[in-house]
């Protein structure tokens, strides 16, 4: 199982996920995020989506998919953390409007 958050984030709540991805709410010094955890080629990867309480509630109640938040974050950006072959993390901030759908986000990061 993939770790639910990048090392710099604090896990606030685990969320159920129907499609096999890890899903949680996490916090750091700058805000609250929906975190989508995926397994990448070299290890865990995370898509950290700045999210409002209302948006998170929509995901909790399954009124919105996590991918809807990925493509429409509170700031218009997401941060993608990828584990590299040497175990280090690469961080990329991306515009939501430029993201491909689903796990293909990792290929764009």
Note the topology.
Elements lengths: L9 E5 L7 E7 L2 E9 L4 E7 L2 H8 L5 H6 L5 E7 L5 E7 L9 H4 L1
Antiparallel strand pairs: 1-2, 2-3, 3-4, 4-5, 5-6
Q: How would you sum up this structure in a few lines?
A:
This protein is of the alpha+beta class and 109 residues long. The chain has helices at 53-60, 66-71, 105-108, and strands at residues 10-14, 22-28, 31-39, 44-50, 77-83, 89-95.
Descriptive overview:
By secondary structure, the protein is an alpha+beta fold. The chain contains 3 helices and 6 strands; from the N terminus they run E-E-E-E-H-H-E-E-H. The protein has helices at 53-60, 66-71, 105-108, and strands at 10-14, 22-28, 31-39, 44-50, 77-83, 89-95. A 6-stranded antiparallel β-sheet has the order 1-2-3-4-5-6. Strand 5 (77-83) and strand 6 (89-95) form a beta hairpin. The radius of gyration is 13 Å and the shape is globular. The two termini are 22 Å apart. 29% of the residues are buried. The model has no long low-confidence stretch (mean pLDDT 87).
């Amino acid at each position: 199982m993939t770790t639910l958050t990048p090392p710099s984030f604090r896990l606030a709540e685990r969320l159920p996920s129907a499609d096999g991805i890890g899903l949680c709410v996490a916090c750091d010094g700058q805000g609250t995020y929906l975190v989508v955890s995926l397994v990448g080629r070299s290890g865990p990867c995370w898509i950290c989506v700045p999210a409002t309480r209302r948006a998170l509630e929509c995901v909790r109640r399954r009124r919105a998919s996590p991918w809807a938040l990925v493509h429409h974050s509170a700031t218009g950006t997401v941060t993608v953390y990828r584990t590299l072959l040497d175990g280090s993390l690469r961080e990329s901030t991306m515009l939501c409007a430029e993201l491909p759908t689903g796990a293909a986000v990792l290929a764009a990061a």
